[in-house]
């Protein structure tokens, strides 16, 4: 929530950015001359843990961006079969690294003082390569460089050598400037390096600026560092028709510019260490599995969070909220969660209630009513704690000494309440205090989750500020985000004015601009300069711990600012977008990027945050947003109301698209389990499932939900059809399963898409669990199941697979073995004229206790049924199948590119009247 963030960092500068971006002006900065001659490897040995440890000495000192660090230590370790680590730091002094307790990982060997000088020219490692299961580390002594190769095909994945013709330097390592580069093949497709809004789609585009530094600049600004910092990229290469993916993570929280030129990539970092992790893949799914295994698996989300959410900044009082809930119900549009922005607060102060507009007795009565129905309630919490001696949260914060300091005093900033201090979540005492404040608030208002916003961290002022005397700040007039404190710039330290200027905010803004002064100090002397981009991450961890400690329930947290590992604790929305067709399109790329980053629960503000969306745009946006992993309509204080029932046509689109989402909730929730166990994104680019098809590497206007459901939305004004790209195989229309597309190759099809229609298709060889749907996930969850089996059309011997995970979603852990979960694998085959469908159940008791059962099976792509129907449950035949009924429909092939002679008659078989308990193994078969 921050309307002014499109005017941030200042009304003039951000408006200038916007105008220049619209005009197509790129912010490109000339590359300086090469810096120095790099380093020389003077010793290398085996480390006690089986890795390598070496020492580097600078070849020629210079003072560009400060003096060189003369001696470096390099540590290399194959940590797993698919993960290689290369860690480079000062050999003589400890440097800032992301706290090992915050992001848990192995600690490199301790530094040995002056070891570079004492072990001069010692090489006990005979070969210049160090091989693991799939990755090989190779090095050159002078000037030192390394390259990482793939063992299976010999490809070079990373190469830090710098030739005379290269526009970048050899390794540079100074206190406040680190530079390292890699050569890349021109046909490599790169993804990641976020968070930013990429106008060209999901692929990283050569010569666009990529700056990583958490910043409150709204998402409508293109190619600008936004709310999160994720210094990882995935590299997908197609060699001889085979796609191979790997990922590179530079684990560093300092500000950085990354220059991608198409054939090289250069990091320019203003502090910390070079701590590289390489993930071998070779498939995109394997990459994300390896990456999240290291940074932390995505948090399990409660079942209700996959329902639809409604929010607005500007629900002025409780009666408005009550009216919104009632109107959704009247319009028959599903709704699971109602949200409050800061409207519920007393003076915009965290953990308070406005006694007039949100009186506690009436709010509690409202919550009891919606909780009884299964609905949930979430409110916003900003990190800034109002400086107010009558405010208990502030008083307890001061008493516990929890705030970030500047020259020994809590650093003063301004956000919505006026003057604020910022909690230091690196301090264990702060984590305890924060948890206690959340507990106190939960006793006041039993919220079901928390929305942590403005945590980049955002500050309406810059520099060193004091509370003005003789005037009220803020005075209650105007927009509220104009700085009214008395402030002076801080530029006297090298932390506030570093020698190298990253392209912050797209305008090389000072690193402390509209945030905490970077010379401010955290717990144990850590500087804001180093810890800035992990603020939201550290707050997510503290909030997760607090919510889980309340009632032992699974937490739900939505965070604006994210870092490497944030997905282990929180969901994310993409911030302040604009109600434009372009922003609708950008939302797909941003969502897909966060799946790579290990934050699969992600979505954008449906219909746009501001200004007013058109009716047509809102129709098309809900048709996309209904299939975001996190699906929420959210609007700005100054925009007209845009709840989905405000227009009759949008309400119809919502009933249609959200109606299908609620039928697919078992599928979404099973993907939640898959994300939690192997890191798999819920929403995925098409190439994830078809990595050998190079034509899919840049598809950014369609996406997959899981591996089998493809969404092909309308993203342009005035269009009543959509040109969609279909990979080879059979694709069934999810809204009308008697319609299908069959293609032998990769082909475009033009699909009808009237205003209330979104095209969603299910791929062959899949088994999709569905339910009846409903107005709320709690009710939808208890309806009977339908199992949809998709065979490729016209083939005689085929198989299909699917799965289903069910559990008590209140439990903090999402796993089997606790007595409150069931997992089912479904299989189906056709061979010798017989169709066979069966289940393999693990821990069926939970599903049996819930009474869940299958009432219908839909099989697509066979040539009908010819009797001999049999059912076995737990090995026992069901004798009486008189209630079971069959119906068949011929499948119509839409605009098929195949010759009519190539197609065989294909049928949809609807088997209903079943009462198969989900918790028991069943086998069903019949003759074709």
UniProtKB/TrEMBL annotation:
Protein name in the entry: Alpha-glucosidase
Pfam family, one: Glyco_hydro_31_2nd
Keyword presence, Signal: yes
PANTHER family in alphabetical order: ALPHA-GLUCOSIDASE (PTHR22762), ALPHA-XYLOSIDASE 1-RELATED (PTHR22762:SF127)
PROSITE patterns recorded: GLYCOSYL_HYDROL_F31_1
Keywords: Glycoprotein, Glycosidase, Hydrolase, Signal
Keyword Glycoprotein among UniProt keywords: yes
UniProt domain Glycosyl hydrolase family 31 C-terminal: residue ranges: 679-768
A Gene Ontology biological process term: carbohydrate metabolic process
Ranges where the Glycoside hydrolase family 31 N-terminal domain occurs: 103-254
Domain Glycoside hydrolase family 31 TIM barrel: 298-671
Stretch forming the signal peptide: 1-27
Record-stated family: Belongs to the glycosyl hydrolase 31 family.
One GO molecular-function entry: hydrolase activity, hydrolyzing O-glycosyl compounds
């Amino acid at each position: 929530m921050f309307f002014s963030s499109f005017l941030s960092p200042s009304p003039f500068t951000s408006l200038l950015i916007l105008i220049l971006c619209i005009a197509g002006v790129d912010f490109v900065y000339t590359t300086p001359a090469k810096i120095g001659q790099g380093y020389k490897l003077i010793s290398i040995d085996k480390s006690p843990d089986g890795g390598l440890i070496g020492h580097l000495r600078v070849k020629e000192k210079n003072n560009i961006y400060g003096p060189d660090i003369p001696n470096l230590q390099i540590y290399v370790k194959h940590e797993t079969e698919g993960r290689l680590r290369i860690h480079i730091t000062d050999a003589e002094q400890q440097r800032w690294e992301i706290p090992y307790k915050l992001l848990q990982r192995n600690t490199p060997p301790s530094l040995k003082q002056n070891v570079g000088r004492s072990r001069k020219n010692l090489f006990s490692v005979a070969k210049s390569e160090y091989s693991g299961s799939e990755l090989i580390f190779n090095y050159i002594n002078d000037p030192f460089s390394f390259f990482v190769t793939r063992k299976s095909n010999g490809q070079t994945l990373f190469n830090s050598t710098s030739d005379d013709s290269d526009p970048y330097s050899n390794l540079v390592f100074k206190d406040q400037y680190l530079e390292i580069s890699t050569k890349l093949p021109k046909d490599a497709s790169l993804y990641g390096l976020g968070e930013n809004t990429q106008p060209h789609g999901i692929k990283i585009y050569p010569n666009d600026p990529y700056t990583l530094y958490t910043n409150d600049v709204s998402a409508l600004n293109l190619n600008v560092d936004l709310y999160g910092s994720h210094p990882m990229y995935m590299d997908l290469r197609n060699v001889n028709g085979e796609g191979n993916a790997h990922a590179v993570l530079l684990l560093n929280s300092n500000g950085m510019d990354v220059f991608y030129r198409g054939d090289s990539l250069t990091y320019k970092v203003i502090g910390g260490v070079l701590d590289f992790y390489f993930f071998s893949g070779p498939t995109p799914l394997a990459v994300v599995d390896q990456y999240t295994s290291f940074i932390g698996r995505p948090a399990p989300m409660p079942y209700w969070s996959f329902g639809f959410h409604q929010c607005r900044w500007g629900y002025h009082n409780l009666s408005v909220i009550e009216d919104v809930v009632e109107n959704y119900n009247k319009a028959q549009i599903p709704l699971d969660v109602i949200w409050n922005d800061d409207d519920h607060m007393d003076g915009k102060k965290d953990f308070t209630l406005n006694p007039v507009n949100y009186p506690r007795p009436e709010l509690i009565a409202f919550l009891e009513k919606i909780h009884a129905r299964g609905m949930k309630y979430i409110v916003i919490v900003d990190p800034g704690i109002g400086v107010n001696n009558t405010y208990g949260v502030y008083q307890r914060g001061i008493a516990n000494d929890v705030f970030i300091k500047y020259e020994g005093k809590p650093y003063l900033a301004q956000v919505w309440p006026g003057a604020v201090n910022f909690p230091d979540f690196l301090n264990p005492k702060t984590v305890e205090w924060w948890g206690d404040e959340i507990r106190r608030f939960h006793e006041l208002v039993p919220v079901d989750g928390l929305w942590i916003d403005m945590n980049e961290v955002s500050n309406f002022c810059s520099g060193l500020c004091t509370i003005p005397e003789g005037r009220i700040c803020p005075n209650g007039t105007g927009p509220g985000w104009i700085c009214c404190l008395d402030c002076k710039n801080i530029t006297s330290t090298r932390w506030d004015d570093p020698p190298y200027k990253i392209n912050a905010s797209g305008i090389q803004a000072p690193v402390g601009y509209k945030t905490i002064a970077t010379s401010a100090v955290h717990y144990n002397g850590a500087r804001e300069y180093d810890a800035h981009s992990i603020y939201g991450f550290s707050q997510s961890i503290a909030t997760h711990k607090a919510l889980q400690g309340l009632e032992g329930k699974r937490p739900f947290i939505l965070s604006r600012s994210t870092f490497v590992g944030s997905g282990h604790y929180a969901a994310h929305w993409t911030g302040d977008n604009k109600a434009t067709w372009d922003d609708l399109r950008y939302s797909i790329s941003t969502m897909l990027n966060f799946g790579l980053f290990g934050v699969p629960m992600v979505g954008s503000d449906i219909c746009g945050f501001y200004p007013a969306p058109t009716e047509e745009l809102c129709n098309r946006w809900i048709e996309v947003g209904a299939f975001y992993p996190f699906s929420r309509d959210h609007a700005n204080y100054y925009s007209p109301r845009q709840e989905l029932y405000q227009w009759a046509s949008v309400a119809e689109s919502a009933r249609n698209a959200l109606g299908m989402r609620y039928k697919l909730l078992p599928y979404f929730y099973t993907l939640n389990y898959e994300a939690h166990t192997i890191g798999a994104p819920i929403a995925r680019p098409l190439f994830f499932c078809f990595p050998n098809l190079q034509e899919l590497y840049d598809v950014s206007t369609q996406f997959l939900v899981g591996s089998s459901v493809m969404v092909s939305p309308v993203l342009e004004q005035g269009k009543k059809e959509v040109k969609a790209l279909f990979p080879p195989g059979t694709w069934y229309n999810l809204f009308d399963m008697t319609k299908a597309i069959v293609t032998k190759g990769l082909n475009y099809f033009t699909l009808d898409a009237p205003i209330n229609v979104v095209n969603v298709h299910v791929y062959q060889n899949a088994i999709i669990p569905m339910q009846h749907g409903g107005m709320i996930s709690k009710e939808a969850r208890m309806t009977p199941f339908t199992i949809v089996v998709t065979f490729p059309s016209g083939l005689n011997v085929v198989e299909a697979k699917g799965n289903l995970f069910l559990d008590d979603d209140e439990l903090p852990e999402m796993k089997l073995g606790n007595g409150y979960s069931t997992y089912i694998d479904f299989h189906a085959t056709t061979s010798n004229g017989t169709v066979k469908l069966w289940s393999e159940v693990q821990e069926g008791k939970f599903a049996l206790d819930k009474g869940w059962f299958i009432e219908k099976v839909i099989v697509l792509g066979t040539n009908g049924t010819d009797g001999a129907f049999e059912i076995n449950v737990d090995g026992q035949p069901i004798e009486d199948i008189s209630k079971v009924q069959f119906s068949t429909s011929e499948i119509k092939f839409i605009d098929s590119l195949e010759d009519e002679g190539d197609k065989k008659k294909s049928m949809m078989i609807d088997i209903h009247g079943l009462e198969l308990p989900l918790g028991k193994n069943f086998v069903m078969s019949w003759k074709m």
